[in-house]
Amino acid sequence: MTLAHITLATRDVQQSLTFFTQCFNWRPLNRPGNIECQAAWLAIGPHQELHLVEVKSFNPSPFESEFGRHIAIEFPGGQFDELKKRITDHGGELVAPQRETPFERFFFRDLNGYLFEVVDSNRVPESTPSP
Questions:
Q1: Whole domain around residue 42: which residue ranges?
Q2: What is the rounded average pLDDT of the residues 1-25?
Q3: Alpha-carbon distance 97 to 65, whole Å?
């Protein structure tokens, strides 16, 4: 079983769409015609999507943190410097991690205040699945 999609409320769908396509090269998808509000769908991985839905009055949860709610994504560690620049150039904010790990990673807040963790896709995980 894998995640099919994640839906995020956003104050400005077009701005968020531009942020994610420009920073991560996620590909816009045709969205269903039965959505009455502004929305955008993005392909973010094999059979995985990010859905953006415009909610003008949206405010992020106060629990967006490393030890609260955040979204972790994998990205090649050798490209972190370029990615960090794209994120900050498009209005994202880099956030210092609260703990050290044996692999490279960083955090950022997007334009809506969601916290994302970016981990090296070539890392050795800290834990392994239980048998």
A1: 5-54
A2: 93
A3: 9
81 and 47 in a common domain: no
Q: What is the Cα–Cα distance from 71 to 66, expressed in whole angstroms?
A: 9
Spatial distance between the Cα atoms of 36 and 54, rounded to a whole number of angstroms = 10
> Mean of the pLDDT values across residues 102-118?
94
Residue-wise DSSP of 63-100: TBSTTSB-EEEEE-GGGHHHHHHHHHHTT-EEE--SS-
Residue among 58, 83, 46 nearest 7 (CA): 58
The CATH number of the domain holding residue 114 is 3.10.180.10
Q: Tell me whether strands 71-75 and 27-29 are parallel, antiparallel or unpaired.
A: unpaired
Phi first, then psi: what are they for 103, rounded to 5°? -125, 160
Pair 47, 75 in one domain? no
pTM for the whole structure: 0.89
d(CA 34, CA 103) in angstroms, rounded, equals: 43
Report which DSSP code applies to 64.
B
Provide mean pLDDT across the span 69-81.
93
